[in-house]
Write the structure tokens for this entry.
Amino acid sequence: MEIETVSIEVIKPSQPTPSNHRSHQFSIFDQFIPHAHLSVPFFYSPPLLSHQPDLIIALIKSSLSKALTLFYPLAGRLKSDDSHIDCNDEGVKFVHARVRHCSLSQALSPPRPHQMMRQLFPIEHTIGGELLGVQVSFFECGGIAIGVYLSHKVADPRSLCTFVLSWASIAKSGSSVLKPIFDLASVFPPINELPPCPGDEPDIAVPDRRVIVDKVFRFEASKIAALKAKAKAKVDEEDPTKMMAVAAFLWTIFAAMDGDGKKGNNSSSPRYCMISVPVYVRGKVASLEEHTMGNAAATPLTKPMAPPIDLSAMPELVEAMRDVVRRVDEGGLVKRRDGGELVKMMEAYIEASNKAYDSEGELGLYEASSWDFPFYDADFGWGRPGWVGVVNGAFANVVVCLDTKSGDGIDATVTLSEQDMAEFESMAELLKYATPVHNALD
């Protein structure tokens, strides 16, 4: 896939940010986020108005400028002390590009579509303290990709979705249906001293500095129903969510893996294994509304589960995930808004990370995150996207689950080391329930 850059511009808010909004304070949640980006490509299939790309570019740029007036911190710059954003209206990088010698369908087909998709983001053009970058790429077949590259320091996946849906609404109808709220720091104030964040230390961000890869595995509705049945301990028990059923199943696969070769090539016995499950606190704290911007999720760890960890253990694995949700819901973090509880969770995460990556493969640590948000409602005026992806790359041992476009399945983007991925995708039990996505538009 060859990318031709047509133009690079800086888009600024359509109206200046008021003086009383010139500084956006980070919350304690934001403080713990490492310097990484959320990278989400939105793909729109032909036929579109792509024979008039100049009109589309003009619409997207003008609506982005209006959206930045509402989402003013995104057009600012991160200060060197990582404590706040200077909302100075410097703007965001906007790239207009053409994709040569490759159709939209080909771009989303093997080999390694996620490695190719990194070219659909303005990564090379976004530098310094910029928080947001957008690249609009036109395919020769008439399809369009909108790559949104947003600093994780200022937004979690829910915030990113709120921003994109608001921007799309402005493009389609002239006004936003969503109103962002920037008051997370008033509910969860920052603290002065932090333990080192995961990702600030190279061994935690990329174990052994090995090459990491992303691949997508689709769980159809019928397979999810089968996994839910296996994950349910009793007939009268509440059904596990789609996400919990899929995460519990993947947990069994990860536990059975060799562990990046650390246990030796002849070992196939399950390991002690644990999962970090981000738990969003919007809706759990009365003063936090759905469209509160920032990072509003705790990342508690499940207890390490002892082998054997197989499909028969799925009810126990689901209960372990429910337990960490209860720990957030019923503990001091939500009830007393106690930042000290979050510090304890992060310290536990760092300790587990060190054990997982410094040991002889005795502990497996993974993060399973549900992006259960309406990304497919991002209609800029030419219909919903044909596919929404997630491009990881900074962290290994991560699973991100998005609903499929139909809403009844799950696309799980799995990020592992190259060696682990080769083992993972060859696991026979995995392929009974999940299908590798070879063309996301099919």
Q: What stands out?
A: Residues 202-436 form a domain with the Chloramphenicol Acetyltransferase fold (CATH 3.30.559.10). The chain has 14 helices and 17 strands. The CA atoms of residues 367 and 398 lie 5 Å apart.
